[in-house]
Each structure stands twice: as structure tokens, then as C-alpha cells.
Design a protein that fits this description.
six-stranded mixed β-sheet; 2 domains; carbonate dehydratase activity; alpha/beta; Beta-carbonic Anhydrase, Chain A; 10 helices; single chain
Amino acid sequence: MPSFATLLDGFRRFRSGEYQDQRRRFDALAMHGQSPKLMIIACSDSRVDPTRIFDVDPGQVFVVRNVANLVPPYETTPGYHGASAAIEFAVTQIEVDYIVVLGHAQCGGISASLSGKFDGAAHGHGGFIGHWMDMIAPARDATRAAAAANPDVDAQQVLELAAIRLSLDNLRSFPFIAERLEAGTLKLRGTHFGIADGILRVLDEDTGRFEPVPVG
């Protein structure tokens, strides 16, 4: 398994390889700052790196990662709203054109929600995770009921896709996002990546179905 020393070895390879190859881009980014037109909200899962999945260069996407790629609803209650702050920054300061929610197969957060593993857990023992996943509790309950009634239902995938839809709905609850959607200056897209099969599915807003992206 990688250790911190492994990370430093990787940095050395990056510094002598890709960094040199992309030196002009890094110099421009250092001088002029970032101005990506895409924001990606992805899961923290180590197997799902959006910059690799979409093969993008440094400075091209603004990325936020958290457990199960969830977007909380718009709220102004006291507390630290990390995901909301990042969304606000991307939309109002960088002025991105797209926000893409990237879910994935075999998501541990989704699995924990289905199993109830962290329900009622104390902080430091899964409580933060359990509270975060409470966002999808209604969808989880509906998925459990559907799976109980029909053993052919893939509860894991159903809830993964439901979580993406919920995140898109929650994005629309932010007033500054709703304004830009109405004006046509911002678009939202939902996507789901299969770790085992390498298939990327994109939510078709007209049909409500996740359709695979054709590849060569």
C-alpha cells in the first residue's frame, strides 16, 4: 500500500515529467489564476478520480469531492457549509458554465446508507457519515421497499442514481443557481461511472434515464 514516501516519489516523477510537459500551462495558471468552465461534484472514493475519467488538464475543472457526491439543499443555518461554499465560489466567482454531478458504482456511502451501518452512530464512530447520508434517507427507504417487493431490483445502483438526481434537485434550490439556469448561463448534468465496466452514463433530462456514452 502507498505510504507518504510513495507520495513523495510520485511527486518527483510529476515534477520531472508532467510538470515539465505542462510548464507553459502551469506558468499561465500561476500568473492569471484559474478560470475553468466546468465544476464536477464527485465522490471521495479513491477509485473515481474525475480528472482521469474525463482526461482533463490542470486548470480545466473545478472539483469538489465528498462522501457519495452529495449536494446539500440550500440553507443558511449556522455551521460550516463546505460543499455549499465551493458551489457558491464556482458559480458566482469563477462563473462556470456547467456543474456535473459524478456518481459511481459500488459507492461505499450508498452501501452504508442501505445497510443502516451508521444509523444513530456517535461522532467519531460513523456519526458524521450517518448524518451526511440522512440526506438520502427518503430515497433509501423507497429503494429498500422496492427491493423487498422485487428481488430483481439492484438496490445499490437504484440508490446511486437517486442520489445523483437528489444532488441535482438540491443544486436547483440555490437561488444563485436557479437564476442562472433561468437565464441559460448555467447547465446541470448528472453522470454515473461504472468502475468494473468503465461505462459512463449520462442522465437524459427528457426521459429521466441514464444512457451510456458511446465510445469508439
